[in-house]
Every structure is written in C-alpha cells, then in structure tokens.
Amino acid sequence: MIKPLTALIVDDEPLALEGLSLRLAKIPEIEVIGQAENGDDAIRLCHELCPDVLFLDLQLPGLNGIEVVQAIQTDVLPMVVFVSAYSDYALEAFELNAIDYVLKPANLGRLQKTVNRILERRQPRHAEQEKYRLLQALTETSGLAVAELESWLETDNPLPAAQNKDLVIKNSDNEQVFVPVDTIRWIDAAGDYMCVHTDSDTHVLRITMKKLQTLLDETQFARIHKSTIVNLNHVTAIRPMRNNESLITLQEQVELKVSRNYSKALQQFVAKKKTLS
C-alpha cells in the first residue's frame, strides 16, 4: 500500500479549518497531520512536521499566505495549495510555484482533483529517490561510485568492473601483502620502484607509475608530480605558491609539492570530487 501524502492545513477561521479537515479525511491518498490558525504557527509546524503538502489560506493574521511561503526555508518547503475566498492573488501564488489555487468553499470533488495533481507532480520525485536508493545499494555491492553507475545506465554496456580495493605488494620475504587502497596516503617514485605510504607503514613496489595509475580509482587518486600520486581523501589543505605551483597538506601535516604541470589537473580532480560527494 502506498503511503498517503501528509498535509498541514492553515486557516484563521475555525469552521473553515474543520470543514477542510473533514473533507480531506475522506480522501485516502492524503492524511492531515497538523493545523494552524496563523502564519507564525504554520512556519513552525512546517519545520517540525515536514508535511508533503501545505493547504494555506491567503488571509491570515500577521503574515499572509504569500509571506508564509516566502519565509519557509526552501529545504523544508512542501508543495503548496492556496485556499482562498478571493481570486485576487492567484497570479502571485503561481509565481511561487503553487500546485493549485482553490476557491472557498472547496468541495470534495475539487479537493480530489487537487490531490490527483499533487500525486502526478510527486511521482517523478518519488521515482528518482527510488532510483538513487537502488544505485546506492548497487554501489555497496559493486564497489562502483554512484556517478559511474548513472553513466552506465545510459549505455547498453555490461556493468563495469570496480577498481581494486587492495593493492598486492610483495614484502622483503617475498610474501604477498594486501594493502587496502583507502589506507594509501601518497605514492612517490624511487628509481624503478614505487614507495607506497599508508597510515602506518611504507611499502616498496616494483611497477611503473603509469601502470600503477590504472590500478587506482581516478576519482580518488591524483597525479601531482611526475613522481608523485596522492590520495585526495587524505588532503586537508591546498596552498598556492609562485609559478602556478602549490603545496598540499595531508593528515598528520605531511606536505607535498604540486608541480605547475599538474596544478590544473589537481584542481579538476578536486572539483570532480566535490561534484561526486
């Protein structure tokens, strides 16, 4: 069974408030969860109850209906239906993206049409939320980022493989050590070897920088120098220097230089990371 829409109704006339509540109670797709008789209480209850729909009279003591909508923060703004005995404010109401403008007295049939209109408007939002929840679940099982999965949905390609979660390194006893990628802070080159610095240790790996980059998630690891790769999740600050170079600070105050050849690329990585987060 689909959960009904929640509604807050606002009117300074007790009889009008009761009548609207009784009629809405006969519509199974909607549930009245609160009532208010003035603009200040309407704003407070919107923040407390977060209703899906606000049935709002225009003529209220203190703040009028238009001012109530303007005062409510956009992150908690429900879908608005203005209810009024006058049509004077209809144009201004629709400029505030109201779902409907209902003239008093509103009969049951007219309110049902309003609820149907709300359900039609709400459906794309509900579908988008369900899609995002499914993508999040798939992210946990596949290891792929939500943005990667969204791109994949637009193609006919098979599900792409996730980036390695562990880097396999041979230690001095020729044993294979599995280093979790998330624990890697930065990597720098030392001749034909790569020094992989983690939270607690440094591992030496014989591999080229180019090959190593293919094993790491490009949304998480950025090349900042011809011989250095850094884990963006460990970056705490970026300080610009002369000649288009910069200095980044990692956790525990490790500082690494970003050469000017990679400064632009670093900024692009940071911008992309912000977009994905």
Please state how the strands of the largest beta sheet are arranged side by side.
Answer: 2-1-3-4-5
The radius of gyration computed from the alpha-carbon positions, rounded to a whole number of angstroms, is 29 Å
Structural class: alpha/beta
Strand content range: 25-35%
CATH topology of the largest domain: Rossmann fold
Uncertain spans:
none
SS element count, helices: 8
Helix content bin = 25-40%
The CATH homologous superfamily of the largest domain: Response regulator
Number of strands: 15
Element order, helices and strands? EHEHEHEHEHHEEEEEHEEEEEH
The figure for the number of domains is 2
Shape: elongated
Could you tell me how far the N terminus lies from the C terminus, measured between alpha carbons in angstroms? 33 Å
CATH class of the largest domain, anyone?
Alpha Beta
Short description:
The protein contains 8 helices and 15 strands. With 277 residues, the chain is α/β, with parallel strands linked by helices.
Structure description:
It is built from 8 helices and 15 strands. The chain has helices spanning 14-24, 39-49, 65-71, 90-95, 108-142, 146-153, 209-214, 260-276; strands spanning 5-10, 30-36, 53-57, 79-84, 100-103, 166-170, 176-180, 184-190, 193-198, 202-206, 221-225, 228-231, 235-240, 246-250, 254-258. The relative contact order is 0.07. The chain folds into 2 domains: 5-134, Response regulator (Rossmann fold), CATH 3.40.50.2300; 166-276, Beta Barrel (OB fold (Dihydrolipoamide Acetyltransferase, E2P)), CATH 2.40.50. α2 (39-49) packs parallel to α3 (65-71). The chain is elongated, with a radius of gyration of 29 Å. With 277 residues, it is α/β, with parallel strands linked by helices. Strands 2-1-3-4-5 form a 5-stranded parallel beta sheet, sandwiched between helices. It has a 5-stranded antiparallel beta sheet with strand order 10-9-8-12-11.
